[in-house]
Structure formats: C-alpha cells, structure tokens
Amino acid sequence: MRSLLRGLRPRLMAAFLLLTLLGAVAAAGASYATARNLLLEDAQDGFMNPLVKDVRDYAPKLTVPPAQQDLDEFASYLRGTAFVVYGGLRAHGGPDLSSTVPAEMRTALKSSRTVIWQRRTDLAEPYVVIGIPLLRADGSNTGVEVWAISSLGGPQRAIDSFAKAAWVGVSLVLPLALGLALFTARGVLRPVRRLGAAARALGSGRLDTRVDERGSDELSDLARTFNRAAEQLESSQAASRRFVADVSHELRTPLTAMNAVSAVLDEDAASLPPDTAVAARLVSTETRKLTRLVNDLMEISRFDEGRNVLELDEWDIGTAVRDCLAARGWTTSVQASLPDGVTGRVDRRRLDVIVANLVGNALKHGGAPVRITVRPGVIEVSDHGPGIPPDALPHIFDRFYKADTARSRSEGSGLGLAIAWENARLHGGTIEAANDPAGGAVFTLRLPW
Amino acid sequence: MVLLVEDDPSVREGLGLALRRQGHDVRAAGTGEEGVERLRESRPDIVVLDIMLPGIDGFETCRRMRSQAEVPIIMLTARGDDFDVVAGLEAGADDYVVKPVEPRVLEARIRAVLRRTVAEPSTVERHGSLVIDRAGLQVLKDDAQVALTPTELKLLLELSRTPGRVLTRQQILEAVWEHDYLGDSRLVDACVQRLRAKIEDVPSEPRYVHTVRGFGYRFGPR
After folding, report:
1. Is the pLDDT of residue B185 over 90?
2. Closest Cα partner for A286 from A411, A109, A156?
C-alpha cells in the first residue's frame, strides 16, 4: 500500500476520491435520514390518527368495566382493524396480537395516558405497533387497551430506492472526481517531471540544461531556482576549465625552452660525470613527459571549450588504420584484420588519435597478441591480458584514471583514453570498454560513418 | 642562417642553442620590429617567428617581412590554435610548428623548407603565358620574372610536372613540405592562394592552378 501511494499522482487521486466519497456520503446520509423520518412518520400518522380519533369518539359510549359484548361492539366499530383487550377479556373480531405486542409495551400502556408506539423490524417487513389507552372523561385510564399494527413496507421500499439513487449518484461522481484528480495531477506532475529530466541531464554533465520558468506559481519558482543553480554550476565549471587551459598555456613557453635544451643534455650525457649524466637524462626524460601531459591537457581543454571541429572526408578506414600503425612502428606487434573497401566519412587526424590511443593502451596494459579489427561502422581493439577489473570499467575513460593503483605513474599522460573518447564523441560515435569472456580487454569504437 | 624572432629570453636562448648545435648560424631578435630590421641587414635563409610578440605581433611582422623578401618563414604557434594557424598562413608563413616545440621537429621543417629545388636539365616549359624554367629555377609571366618564395616555386614545379593530373593535398604535402603523415592540408591551400595571386590574371578565376573539390589541385592552362 505504501509503495502504491508513493507517487504524487496516486496520492492526489486517493485524496480526491476520499474527499468526494466523504462529501457525497455525508450529503446523501443527511438527506436519507431526514427523508426516512418524514416518510415513516407520514405513513404512521396516516394509519394512527384515524384510529385514535375513532377510539376517542367511541370512548363515551363504552360502559366501564366492559363486558365481552361491549368489547366486541367496540372492536366491530373499529372495523376489525384493532385488537381490543380489557384485563383478561379480549374482543372477538380483529387480529389476535397477544403474542405480537411486546410485553414491555403492554406494561407501559397500563400506566400511560397517551398513545404509545414502537417501530419494529423483527419481522420480514418493518412495522409499527400502536397502543391506545381508553381514557375516561376525567382523563383516568379505564384499563381498556386498543392495539394495532401497521406494515411500513411501502415507505421502506421508497426509502430503499432513495438510498439506491444516492449510491448511484455517488458512484457517478467518483469517476468525475478521479478525472479531476488526474487533470490536477498532470498540471503539477508535468513541470515536476520536466524538472526531474533536467536534473538528470544536469547530473550527466549537460550543464547548459535549462527549464521553462514561465508562470508565477511555486513550480515556476522552483524552475527559476533550478536555472540559477545550473548557471552557477556552468560558470564555475567554465572557470575551472579556463584555469586548466590557462595553466597549460602558461607552461608552454618554459617547456619550449626546456625541450630545446633537453636534446643537448641527451647528446652530451655520455661525456658527463656519472651522477650528472643520470640527472641530465632524468631532466630530459621528464621534460618530454611533461610536454606530452601539457599537450594532452590543452587538447582536453579544447574539447571542454568546444573549440575542436571535425574535418570530415571520405577515407578508406583500413588504409587509415594501417598508416596509423605503420607511423608508430606497430605493424609487427599488432595483428590487424583490415578488409579492403570499408570507407567512411571521418576526420582522419582524429581517427588516427583514437586508434593510436586504443592500440597504445592495449600494448601497454594488455597482453600480447593485440588485435585490431575493422568492420563497417566498427573498429575493435582487443588484447589478451588480464582484462579490466570490473570496478574500473565504468571509469576507464575518466581523466587521469588508473585501473592499476599500484602503478603510481604510467608512461602516458593519463589522458589518452579520455581524449580518444572525446574524439569519438565529436564524431557522434562511442567507445565501449568490456572484457572478453575468453580473456583480455576489448575496446569497441563505433562511428556513424 | 636562421633568424629567430622570439620575445621570451629562455626560449630564444634554448632554441638558439639547439639550432646552433644543428649547424645553423643563428641571429636572434626579441621583437617584431627588431626582426624586420635584422632581416634587412643580415639576409637570413629562413625566419623562425613567434606569433605572440610585444609591439607588432607575429602576423604583422610576417607581412612586413614578406613585403621585403621571399624568405621562407616558419611560425611558432600555440598548439593547434586554429585561428593562429590560419591567420599566420594568410600572413604569408610557409609552415608552422606548435609550442612546446620539439627541436627535432623544428629542425626537420627547417631542412625541408631550405632544401633547394633540384635544377633539372634543359627543360623550359611554356603553359599559356607562363614560362617555367626548371633549369634556371625561374618563372616568367608575360616575359616578366615572377618573384616566388622557395615554397611557392616548389609547389608550382610539382604541380606543373604532370599537367592535367590531380594531386591530392596529402601528395603535395609530402612532395613540397616533406610532411610525412597526416600533415595539415591548410598549408597547401594557403600556399596555392599565394601562388595564384602571383601567376593568375584573376586569382578567383584561376587558369593554371585549379581546385578539384574534395580531392586536391590540378595544373593546366585552359
């Protein structure tokens, strides 16, 4: 039940239904009670009043205490509709109610100077029992009792059909209430759902997400708040990216100077004292690594700032991959399956970067043999190493992510796969990383070429 | 002799050192104005020019140098900053390298630009009103000599070697710039523009160097 009522829509619907039901039942119940009383009283009075009048009219003529004959005459005056009793005497004619009239009524009537009545439902149909005491002119009780019963079946049926009509009315209003609830829920839920979708988009990194903030209700306020928050998030991210770009930019000039002389250090290292030679080679090696890191950082910055553009052209994919491997001296270390005639519209330079990074990664972290396969729309790079740990799979394309934490610093910049991924995305394609059940990691590049 | 125009003293010193080790005679200048001055007095074989300069920037320096001499110019540019590359090539640069530059790469580019076109024996070709003298390495248009930079001359000789045949940008890059793999085809486009400005009557309606959309260029007088 709790899970059923968790949504705003079912809760609104339940509330509307409950409210309608309560209102309808209250209204119907009140009018039912009133109508029932009126109907019953009406039926009862219609039967009781003429009888009481007849009894009062006859009272002066009756000798008290009456004999059997007096009682019989009285009963026939009442046209045999009533049960006339005096002490142990009972008039002939008229119904025998000695077992129908409850004992407590009989006791009550003995000391009563007014008509008593009771509605009873112990038979198939409801009925009313009326007891009329015969009074002397001075108002004292003569001890003569007149009893009569009247069925209330007719009025009861009227009341029942009234109740049925009320229930039908309620059941007709309920769908209406349900519809109203749905309508209201939609008015509330649509903006809520849009906000939800926008928040998800924001969470997945699309920081330029905004929602429609027209209107002046609380939901529009919420939408405005959301948009302000998204703006702030976007500008703070832009600032941090700008910072990375600026830092990389500033590093470039000193690195150019260092790069220029590192070759000199390398060349002369052999003639330096051993310690100095080690130091010189170290400086020159690290300078080259730093250069690669800064270059990759700037490349990532350009992706973040959307400054990279595609230069699409029709290329033979097999040739492009073959050239990429040849340019890096990987022709012998990689098993390539490159069918002829697979062509596609790609940015050749960017495809080269993707393939180089995927193959380079496989050669570095995977086990031989590394295999690259080209199929229409797909380039697959697989190795036969230990594969990627399952907890590392979702992060394998993250910047500076290292699947093997024991390795403090790898040869690359730590941005290679991230750059490959961005290049694939720029093409409108994807790269997926997975583990082959038979062993090894498989990177699948899909491009809409 | 290499003229190095670079405002940062460390880069100037470092690159100067590296180039001298490669056997070049290096002159250095710290500003664009100084570079233009040095060009006039020392007649270098090639200029290595930084884009970011105080005073007149690299583009303007490039334009002023171009108006003085047909000297090859290699730009030092921010890495892959497309605007800089395009603007530099439009200003007349022959080639560019990106910072932080590998001395090895810069050296290869310098060598490629400096490599003299080999004179071929006794071939003087006439294409329309254009005379190409492969032995004397000069080009005449309407009997007047056309002043071409070494790169422009190499491009024209390469294109006119096979009139009517289409050469792809990549083929041209490899033949003229000696860029091995995935060179920047904008170098070719920019150089073709400059060549057209010098040899065509109406550069926007070329007679000699035709663009073949999606492939490359074709030489042939129409």
Report:
1. no
2. A411
Quote the minimal CA–CA distance from A436 to chain B in Å: 33
Question: Would you call A22 an interface residue with chain B, using a CB distance cutoff of 8 Å?
Answer: no
Closest chain B residue to A252 measured between Cα atoms? B100
Contact A336, A321 (CB under 8 A): yes
DSSP state of A67: -
CATH number of A218-304: 1.10.287.130
- Residue B80 has a pLDDT of 58
Topology of the domain comprising B2-114? Rossmann fold (3.40.50)
pLDDT digit string (tens) for A7-42? Answer: 778 888 888 888 888 888 888 888 888 888 888 888
The CA distance from B81 to the nearest CA of chain A, in Å, is: 9
Between chain A and chain B, the number of residue pairs with CB atoms below 8 A apart is: 74
* For range B149-160, the mean pLDDT: 90
Which residues in chain B are closer than 8 Å to A251, comparing Cβ atoms? Answer: 100
CATH code linked to domain A313-446: 3.30.565.10
Which chain A residues are within 8 Å of B78, Cβ to Cβ?
249, 252
Nearest CA in chain A to B213: A313
Q: What is the residue extent of each domain of chain A?
A: 8-159, 218-304, 313-446
Architecture of the structural domain at B124-219: Orthogonal Bundle (1.10)
Assigned CATH for A8-159: 3.30.450
**pLDDT tens-place string over residues A198-222:** 999 998 888 888 988 888 888 889 8
Instruction: Look at B79 and A264 and tell me if their CB atoms are within 8 Å.
Output: no
The token duo for B79 is 């890495």
Q: What is the ipTM of this complex?
A: 0.81
**Is pLDDT of B61 > 90?**
yes
